[in-house]
Amino acid sequence: MQAETLSGGFADPALQSTHAFRSVMEAMARPGTVQDISGAAPPAPLSKAAGCVLLTLCDADTPVYLAGDADCDAVRSWLAFHTGAPLAGPSHCAFAVGPWEDLMPLSAYPIGTPEYPDRSATLIVDCPALTASGAVLRGPGIKSQAALSLPEIGAFQNNRALFPLGLDFILTCDDRVAALPRSTEVS
Amino acid sequence: MTDQAYNFAYLDEQTKRMIRRAILKGLAIPGYQVPFASREMPMPYGWGTGGVQVSAAVLTPDDTFKVIDQGADDTTNAVSIRSFFERTAGVETTTKTSEASVIQTRHRIPEEPLTEEQILVYQVPIPEPLRFLEPRESETRKMHSLEEYGLVHVKLYEDISRHGHIATSYAYPVKVEARYVMDPSPIPKFDNPKLGDMAAIQLFGAGREQRIYALPPYTQVVSLDFEDHPFEASKADHPCGLCNATESYLDEVIIDDQGGRMFVCSDTDYCAARQAAGHKGKDAA
């Protein structure tokens, strides 16, 4: 087992995960805001922020889908050691992580059922850049309008059309996190 | 000093992760009740076990925590939950609304407007607004999925036909973002207009019923009503006996056995701050 597998977790899980969660919650509650998040050092190609989100939210109860380059031995063993999350395909995952192109197609993920729309996947999208500019956002959590750099627009509009079903997105880049819940209208 | 026998904020990490995932889904689907595996807490159901679990999942050591029970900081429930988190999370506590970053509440929204830096956690007894109209969970789930909310309007209509006006005065149902009908917990309907467009994040926890739901900031929340019987946020038509406030929600207090009574602000922090600023009501000593 490599040293990289054993390191890079939260040194103080209770405190670091609660701070990380607050960043994720603020991001999810206020789409278009970019929050700082830190504490994890996952193996490449995962960003630090994506690692923090995985450590904060994933455990043996949440199947994780590793998309594209993220599906490598280093990430697999790191995730297994620190979270115990089982790996799954896109159709059975609770969380998926990877770059936007590798996460496609979005139709592969569970979007919940009409009675239980919460039983849907959350996609952790590792982005090359993440700023509060670009696509215009409106909806719950946004006072009038906000902006966020999104990999594309059409996919999020289609996702919004499924409301209250749909996928939720956590966007990560380096040590920053933002989110785009299914309730947000993108233009 | 944190009580070292417990994990930070009492709950174990796996439980907190489960609650945190439910909170995120709740924020993504405003007004929808997310099931969660509520734990037994060291207090009985009905004393805020849902709110306590949500607070435990969101608190950080940097937070300043306030608890109110029907607006009061000094009731048994509020005092014991405050000291619970002082012991298990080592957080600062306060009774001042403006100084708190996380406020757990039972059945009131503070009078002072909340800010973007604050989180309001509600203790919820019955999260399902349709429960007294349809006891089967399988049916109410279906009704929510089909937006089948006619029954709620029938209930409000029956109020009108019996009393001449909508007599529901607390736990008044609201519609969130034109989709889900939600129980705002038993807050007086006086507080309903504050639910919508609030700057703070609002989280609702029902421990016994095992449901979490949420309102992100600036969410559209509409109290159900009829065109000819519009929603009215009512309160006792008196000024506060202690601080003379006319805009705040009042409790009626019986003060003797001769029928004597006084009306006082239910929000004790609001009332105390006004009294400290020199406002004086007719019953003030």
Give a nutshell description of this structure.
With 187 residues, chain A is α/β, with parallel strands linked by helices.
Quick tags:
heterodimer, A: 187 residues, alpha/beta, 6-stranded mixed beta sheet, 3-stranded antiparallel beta sheet, 6 helices, 9 strands, globular, B: 285 residues, 7 helices, 27% helix, 18% strand
How would you portray this structure in words?
The complex is a heterodimer of chains A (187) and B (285). In chain A, α5 links the parallel β3 (95-99) and β4 (122-126). Chain A is globular. Chain A has 187 residues and is α/β, with parallel strands linked by helices. Chain A is 29% helix and 19% strand. Chain B is built from seven helices and twelve strands. Chain B has helices at residues 13-28, 49-58, 76-89, 137-145, 150-163, 192-195, 268-276; strands at residues 34-35, 64-69, 92-93, 102-106, 119-123, 174-176, 180-182, 201-206, 211-215, 221-223, 250-254, 261-265. A seven-stranded mixed β-sheet of chain B has the order 1-9-8-5-4-2-3. Chain B has a three-stranded antiparallel β-sheet with strand order 7-6-10. The relative contact order of chain B is 0.16. The model of chain B has no long low-confidence stretch (mean pLDDT 95). Chains A and B meet through α2 of A and α1, β1 and α4 of B.
Tell me the layout of helices and strands.
The complex is a heterodimer of chains A (187) and B (285).
Chain A (H helix, E strand, L loop, with lengths): L2 H4 L6 H17 L5 E2 L11 H10 L6 E3 L6 H11 L11 E5 H4 L18 E5 L8 E4 L7 E3 L5 H8 L6 E6 L2 E5 L4 E2 L1
Parallel strand pairs in A: 2-3, 3-4, 4-7
Antiparallel strand pairs in A: 1-8, 5-6, 5-9, 7-8
Helix pairs in contact in A: 2-3
Chain B lengths: L12 H16 L5 E2 L13 H10 L5 E6 L6 H14 L2 E2 L8 E5 L12 E5 L13 H9 L4 H14 L10 E3 L3 E3 L9 H4 L5 E6 L4 E5 L5 E3 L26 E5 L6 E5 L2 H9 L9
Parallel strand pairs in B: 2-3, 2-4, 4-5, 5-8
Antiparallel strand pairs in B: 1-9, 6-7, 6-10, 8-9, 11-12
Helix pairs in contact in B: 1-2
